[in-house]
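TASK: fixed-backbone design
INPUT:
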């Protein structure tokens, strides 16, 4: 007797549809699912296993063991078995050493992405699929607002960022949980996801529920929409800045310069992008907002001040030019 096929439920259909749309943007070859074994990444892995072959792609999985808690190796081994049972191939398990730079969350993230990039290079993967959901996006936006990190942080996570693709940014976490139930999958529940020592957990468990209770339902969706709109605006401004910079920038052996008149004629959002873009393209340095504003004052508040030293770069006004040179 043939095994009974599981019914296609709304949760399964929604997740599969999101993955199908994402895979349409991926060229042929290998795609890897970053699999932790939690409900989000497990639902993503199952949907990718179903959709990839239909898209002419080979799907594998990369499981990263951070080694930060007891039983992490067992959890990684379990996720590996689940990936193989879903038909994903190849399946990699990598154990990483997590440093301390930037705090535990940032250090773990850095180690994870470095390992994912290594596995992708080894397999010539054209994309790494990440299981971030709409809820993760809302949490990211709230954390960015709380830290005053500016539009770059508040616009949240991009659906596609180089090698990394996030198919589930329009899917609620409750949907991925239901997907696993409907598919007979048993996800691993990371105890750190309930630890209030982490700011993201406090946002998830306390802040968002309070906002929903006091302001009404739909807060997470509204935050995700805000992120999407900000990302569209930022991409447009970045595009304009790149076009303008090609015409304005003057290169020399010592560095690069921008004309004061052109910087002054542009609104602050474009002016500051031109400054950041000049420094990033010439010296591979990302300026903070405070440093960018200091440089901008050489244009808008000029009263004979001397050179500015920002990380890796010296900036000064010479006549009608803002000149950027490498610091010794």
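OUTPUT:
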């Amino acid at each position: 007797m043939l095994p009974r096929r599981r019914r296609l439920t709304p949760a399964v259909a929604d997740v599969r549809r999101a993955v199908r749309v994402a895979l349409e943007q991926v060229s042929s070859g290998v795609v890897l699912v970053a699999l932790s074994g939690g409900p989000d990444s497990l639902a993503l892995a199952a949907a990718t296993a179903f959709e990839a072959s239909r898209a002419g792609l080979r799907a594998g999985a990369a499981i990263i063991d951070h080694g930060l808690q007891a039983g992490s190796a067992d959890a990684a081994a379990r996720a590996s078995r689940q990936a193989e049972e879903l038909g994903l191939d190849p399946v990699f398990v990598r154990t990483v050493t997590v440093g301390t730079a930037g705090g535990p969350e940032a250090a773990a993230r850095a180690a994870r992405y470095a390992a994912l990039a290594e596995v992708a290079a080894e397999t010539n993967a054209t994309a790494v699929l990440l299981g971030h959901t709409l809820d993760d996006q809302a949490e990211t936006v709230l954390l960015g607002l709380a830290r005053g990190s500016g539009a770059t942080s508040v616009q949240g996570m991009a659906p596609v960022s180089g090698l990394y693709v996030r198919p589930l940014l329009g899917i609620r976490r409750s949907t991925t949980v239901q997907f696993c139930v409907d598919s007979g999958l048993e996800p691993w529940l990371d105890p750190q996801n309930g630890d209030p020592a982490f700011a993201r957990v406090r946002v998830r468990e306390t802040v968002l529920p309070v906002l929903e209770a006091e302001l009404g339902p739909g807060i997470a969706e509204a935050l995700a929409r805000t992120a999407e709109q900000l990302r569209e605006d930022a991409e447009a401004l970045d595009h304009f800045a790149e076009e303008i910079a090609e015409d304005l920038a003057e290169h020399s052996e010592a560095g690069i310069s921008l004309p004061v008149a052109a910087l002054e004629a542009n609104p602050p959002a474009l002016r500051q992008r031109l400054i950041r873009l000049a420094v990033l393209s010439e010296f591979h340095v990302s300026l903070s907002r405070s440093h960018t504003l200091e440089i901008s004052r050489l244009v808008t508040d000029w009263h004979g001040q001397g050179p500015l030293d920002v990380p890796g770069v010296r900036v000064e006004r010479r006549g009608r030019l803002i000149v950027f040179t490498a610091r010794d």
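COMMENT: Residues 219-248 form the longest helix (30 residues).
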